[in-house]
User: What shape does this take?
Amino acid sequence: MRKVFLRSLAIFATLSLAGATLPALAPTVAAQTAPSTYQPKFPGDPARSDSEAAALAYMRVVIRAQRQFNKQYDHFATSLAELVHSGSFTKRMVNPDRGDYTVGFEGKKDSYILTLTPKQLDATHRSFYAEDDGKIRADEEKPADDKSPVVK
Assistant: This one.
């Protein structure tokens, strides 16, 4: 009986000490995981945040898939669903919710317009626009369109 009591006391003491040190460690862990500035994904990366990098990557995949689709069928896909299995475009990519961005797509057999609009427009979440010429355009003040500057 005494062994059980001493063992229980030791466990209680250990847990109490561990609980007392956890709040002291919390600021250290938070400081290590604090958001830092954006790290470019490749030389010449035009993105200003991880969200923009993901949005631009999505646009590049759609543009390549449309180029391949047009080459194979002699017309552009009229919906994102038609692009599935063209290039590296997957079924999951049909979903217009892309995290911090929403996809807009208007397809015709002879052209298409692709837009990615951020849920919160700011300097690190620009809106993007592309059409069948393959040029990606961006705007940080309003939804991007064919008159917006080309992303470098």
